[in-house]
Design brief:
Layout lengths: L2 H21 L1 H26 L1 E2 L2 E2 L2 H35 L3 H7 L1 H13 L7 H13 L3 H32 L3 H8 L6 H39 L5 H11 L5 H16 L6 H35 L4 H37 L4 H6 L4
Antiparallel strand pairs: 1-2
Length: about 350
């Protein structure tokens, strides 16, 4: 067979492979999530496997089930802890007195109307406009539509939850199962290289995920404490949301700060705008600003530079490309996937100068 035809067939095979993987990307996502959960559960599983009651040891199937149910209980425990706080926030928003809000905003509204009249901008009465928009936002009838849309997704959520739990159980029970599955796809002559790739990937990504977990925890604590000090109600909810959404590079902190500002104001609309709401907004912005500076100049450089050994500009470009190709999910997964690709390239394509440059710190 001519070499040109071999290359064409090889490229066609790779294209079909990537298409097949993209087609079953949801299932691959379940497997990857299960693999991560199994890594988290392995320490407790190993402890239970070593534990003995007299001469009787706990069967692996039972220890794996206990470890998995512990993770599930932790997940639902966090939800049950914050659900009442979210419900109280929703009740506070639904009880907002729109007329009182308009009265408190009378000063700023007059300034806006004077500015509009100065430049001959004609529109409906500003007070009426704000009143109608607030009524639309607070209209509880919209909750019915939201609830209906959520019911439509429950089936998919249940399938995802069951699939991840089922796969995770076997990954926990058989510690090297995921590793062996990956190795089984490698050609025999490349098995040592694949083993090295998996070993290095495991080390780097473990450090990365631990760093991300520490970053999220620190942001939750700092924002919750900071907002509590300045007198914001439900500061823990805002801190929790800001910490979790911060996982999305660059965009996440902006979303977290905007939601924090909205929730801070929405529960204090009965206050005077100029003497109380404006100072509160300044305090909230200051809290988010200080935490964001710490994140940008302390947390992120430590996580990205020390865990995945990549230059900040390099990381920025990778995240930008991933966001363009795959949106928010691509931005979240950009660094782990890029780390894996660098390790694979170093092992199999080290003869190329660009690969040498990008992987010299690995």
């Amino acid at each position: 067979m001519p070499n040109g035809l071999k290359y064409i067939l090889g490229l066609l095979g790779l294209a079909l492979l990537f298409f097949g993987l993209w087609y079953i990307r949801t299932i691959i996502g379940y497997i990857l999530v299960s693999a991560i959960l199994s890594l988290i559960a392995q320490p407790s599983n190993r402890f239970l496997n070593k534990l003995k009651l007299g001469k009787i040891s706990i069967p692996k199937s039972i220890s794996a089930a206990i470890s998995l149910f512990s993770l599930i209980a932790l997940f639902f425990g966090v939800i049950s802890l914050f659900a009442p706080l979210v419900a109280s926030q929703a009740r506070a928003i639904s009880n907002i007195n729109v007329d009182l809000v308009i009265q408190n905003l009378k000063g700023p509204i007059n300034v806006v109307e004077q500015w509009m009249n100065q430049y001959n901008v004609t529109t409906e009465n500003t007070s009426d406009l704000i009143r109608s928009k607030l009524n639309e936002i607070l209209d509880i009838s919209d909750v019915t539509g939201i609830f209906s849309s959520l019911l439509g997704t429950l089936g998919n959520v249940f399938i995802a939850f069951f699939s991840i739990c089922f796969i995770s159980y076997f990954f926990i029970k058989e510690e090297n199962l995921f590793y062996n599955i990956l190795i089984s796809f490698s050609p025999s002559k490349y098995t040592p290289q694949f083993e090295k790739v998996l070993s290095n990937t495991n080390k780097l990504l473990t450090r990365y995920f631990i760093g991300i977990l520490g970053q999220v925890s620190l942001i939750i604590i700092l924002i919750s404490v900071g907002l509590s000090i300045v007198g914001v109600k439900n500061a823990v909810i805002i801190g929790l949301f800001a910490g979790i959404i911060n996982v999305i590079p660059y965009i996440g902190p902006i979303i977290g700060a905007l939601v924090g500002l909205i929730l801070s104001v929405s529960t204090n609309l009965d206050l005077d705008f100029s003497t109380e709401i404006v100072p509160l907004l300044i305090k909230v912005v200051s809290v988010f600003g200080v935490v964001q500076l710490l994140d940008n100049f302390v947390f992120q450089p430590f996580i990205f530079s020390n865990s995945v050994n990549a230059h900040p500009l390099e990381i920025f470009i990778v995240i930008l490309i991933a966001g363009t190709v795959a949106g928010i999910s691509g931005m979240i997964l950009a660094i782990p996937i890029y780390t894996l690709l660098r390790i694979v390239a170093k092992e199999f394509l080290s003869q190329f100068k660009i690969v040498q440059s990008l992987t010299k710190n690995l």
